Each structure stands twice: as structure tokens, then as C-alpha cells.
């Protein structure tokens, strides 16, 4: 893709970008403007570079790789799909392509190349020109739906990972990231080098092994760690919560969060303010996720109605809802099994007992009524004594003349 007449408007570093040893690693695409220098190796999905771009390491592309004319790669180029090399491209190592290769004139590959697909040696058509020619041909033959699908795939903005965008004429390396445009960094990045740009916006939870310097404003988001100075010539500096700056701050006006830490000095020609607000306008996904998790935990720990707490929030009497103990239940069962000494009024059992007492009193001489106060044990002993003193009656001979059995 040619960037000669339309330089990219900002340095964009997406979420999760890291610098590992000497490689710039991202999950998305890498777009490099013309006449730029990238001192790192590059690893990404698709790698596209304009003319006269110099890479100080190797290139690993999971998808396609397109290098415009006069590009220079110091090491190997490994491509997962197709490769497009313009005129006079130099590769210091090997070129290995899993798909097709389209090579222009005077391409220098020092250690040879391998390809599993077609190898075409010609001048590759610029991407924009090829796109217009391809769409025009589809429309000419009446394939409007195919042309629309092609445009939707090319202009799809719903991709999960944003690309790294390096503007025209930039220099990216361990020493510094120098661009003449604004610079914007996402979240959870780990960057080596000083950042020099027109304006600098740093996202959340980043680690920057270097300083920040700009002509305009500088914004540092929540939880970021800047191991250097933060300096602006004509702008303001805004520092979010949990930020730690290991150096100095110099600006016209400084807005510092009360939970931020600055190890150096703060110099401002205007005002220095302490605040408690967020400095970034975008949504904080981590904070929202933590809030949702806290709400779920609070809801799970809340007592349910009927578990000792009434619906209005007041606690019920523990004694009212308590289960009886085993001792109490055993006592209740034993009390239920024992007969009631005081029968209810009009009970048929009471009436029968009274009639039996009357009849027994009539049979006894004097008509004395037995004392109810005599215990059941005494009554049993008296009956046993009477049985012992009573003499057995003599039994006569049976009708057959047999003598009775002495044992009976």
C-alpha cells in the first residue's frame, strides 16, 4: 500500500502491544507509513509497509505481508499466507511463504526463498490500483453482490484487534518513538523507549520504560507506570488514579489525581490541581467488570427471606422459629404416652369406673367404698396374700371314677 500522498494521521498502539526483547508484538495488523524506520522485528497478523521502510529485525506475519518498493528487512521474512514484494526490496535472510509470492524486479533475497503456492515475478500492482481495477471488473460483469462483499471485508471495523499504525517518516526503536503526529496508546501495553509526539495519550495499566515529551497535552490513564519524565512544551498534563511517574513533571498546568505518585518534582507555569476524577473519556472495562463482580458477590452474600430475617429486613425471634431439642421432643412424646389422671368431664371411662365402684361397695359389708389413695403396688400385694391363704377346694372323683391328679 502506498502512503506517498496521504500520511497516516497518528501513532496508534492498540491494547496488549508489547516489546519482547527486540520484537514489536501485537495480535492485530501492523501498518507502517512510507520512509519510516522500525528498529525492531515485527510480529503480527498482517504486515503492510510503504515505500522505503527499513526494518531492523525479522518479520513474522500470520496472514499476508506486503513490502513496497525499496524496503529493507535485515533478517528473515516468514509469511503464513501470501507475500507481495515490490521493486528493489532487500531481504537479509530467507523468505518463506506458505502461499503465493508476487515479486517485482531487482528483488534481493540473500538466503533464497521458499513458497508452497504460485511464484510470480513481475511488478506487483499497487494495492489501491488493484482494488479499483478488481471492483470495476466485478461491476462490469454484473457481480454487484460480490463487489459489495469485497468492500465490506476490506472496510470491516468490527475486528477484535486494532492495528498498530506508524505514520509516515516515523522512527521506532529502543531509544525513542519519534513521530510528528499525535500518539495514542491503548491499555495493558509494555513499551521500551521514549515517546516523542505532538500530543500523547496513554491508556490504563501500561508500563513505559522511558519518558513522555510532547508539544501539546499529555494524558496518563489509570494505573500506568512511566519510568521517566513527563514534559510538555506548551500543553497541560493530566494524571489519573494509581499512576506512578518515576521522574519529573513539567507543563503549563498540571492536574494530579490524589492517588497518583510522582517521585520527582512538579514544575508548572500555571496551576497545579488535585482531583478525584478519571482523565480518560473512554469506558473503563476493568472497572466495570470489577463493579459487576462486587455486585454479584454482594447479592450472593445477602440473606434470603425466611432464613432468620423477615422480608422487611428485621431479624425474626430466634426462639420463635427454633427447632425443639431432642430432650424436649422426648419429654413431649413421653407425656403423650402417659395416661391422663384427670379425665375430662363427661368421659365414658369415668362413668364406667364410678358404676363399678358403686357395685363393689354394695357387695362389701358396710358398703365401704375402697380408698382410691391406695397405691397399685399395695393392691397387688394384698391380692397375692389372699391367694396364698385361700385353701383350694377338694375335687371329687370324676364321672368315670378316676381320681384327680394330685398335681392339679
UniProtKB/TrEMBL annotation:
Among SUPFAM superfamilies, the record links this protein to: Trimeric LpxA-like enzymes (SSF51161)
Give one GO term, molecular function aspect: acyltransferase activity
Region annotation Disordered: residue ranges?
295-408
Q: Which InterPro entries match?
A: BacA/B, Trimer_LpxA-like_sf
TM spans (from-to): none
The record's Gene3D superfamilies line, in alphabetical order, gives: Hexapeptide repeat proteins (2.160.10.10)
List keywords of the entry alphabetically: Acyltransferase, Transferase
Recorded superkingdom: Archaea
Q: Where is the composition biased (Acidic residues)?
A: 309-357
Q: Where is the composition biased (Basic and acidic residues)?
A: 378-408
Q: Tell me what this protein is called.
A: Putative acyltransferase
Native source species: Halapricum desulfuricans
